[in-house]
Amino acid sequence: MRQLSIAGAWAHEPKVFPDSRGSFHEWYRASDLDEAVGHPLRLAQANFSVSRRGTLRGVHFADVPPSQAKYVTCVRGAVLDVVVDIRVGSPTYRQWEAVRLDDTDHRAVYLAEGLGHAFMALTDDASVVYLCSEGYAPGREHGINPLDPELGIRWPEGITPLLSDKDAAAPTLAEAERQGLLPSYEACEAYCAQVRARD
Q1: Cβ(39)–Cβ(199) under 8 Å?
Q2: What is the pTM assigned to this prediction?
């Protein structure tokens, strides 16, 4: 597990074993994640999405507590996966980091509760699997427009973004902050400490 520049986010970079039949790799190992994060990933829901090239999903996040920690990988094709620090008061607030997830290197990304998540499909039929610590709850789910110029995520050039109506209408980060939608860094740290103590 490699810690990313945003606290609470890690990239898993597995060793892939190819042979004449294909390949094998471990895309998730609980002990590795436990050691990095400080507690087990409580698996409450697993999601699977298939996206055509250019599909841009996110930036999504949920109210804290309990929010939703995610462990994400791409099992077919490729996506540019982005973690966004939307925790008001965080030392890296408003910063983002991108990791390419694909069916060659088989990386995965973990993001802790309170972080924003988005990805763009770089290929047709890009298939993404998410392990989630909490189930989907519409009343506490929110979004930030992934094309917010002040957020400045550098999406790949030459690909037209395809957004859902909901994501296209999502507020900018500044608007979400003014509306009181964003979690505080203090609340996220307190909740993560509770999870570590519980587990």
Answers
A1: yes
A2: 0.95
